[in-house]
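Fold this sequence, please.
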Amino acid sequence: MKIQPWNRIESRKRESYRVFDVREDRSVSPVTGTEYGFFVIESNDWINVIPITEDGRIVFVRQYRHGTQEITLEVPGGIVDDGERAIDAAVRELREETGYLPEEIVHIGTVAPNPAIQENSCHTYVARNCRHVERQQLDGAEEIEVVLVDADEVPRLMTEGRITHSLVVAAFYYFDLYRQSRRRSGAG
């Protein structure tokens, strides 16, 4: 059976929250003709940044996450503001959360965080030759510790369960592909 798109016949906003909205769609199965309801989370796109210092370490952030009620080890990231380009959000979030700025920033991949219930994307960037230039610029609800980690330690931190955020794990998959591509091209 070839999978077909469903026909959305109705869509209405249900609730609005600070960082996302919820809408309810009514869609019809192309196979059975039956109508079903689906809830979709609407949100601006997100970004993740893998910042690499001039000496080759990766700038991580450690923070408390309310969903899991745990302190996590992640890369800087956040939401793309209305009217903002994703690359500009990446530089902004890196600077705000860590006080670092890159010499160069490159898009290395995009994923759909959870296409079953979300419509947005998460863009991953690698920020090369990052230098610490200022203090963090955190908002009132952020408490972030900056942690420098050797790149070779990242796989171990994932397998030991110290890096658990799925979008960060996906970011490092793209980072690995990026590094392989640079080695093949002789860029180092």
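The chain is about 20% helix and 40% strand. Residues 62 and 73 are 5 Å apart (CA to CA).
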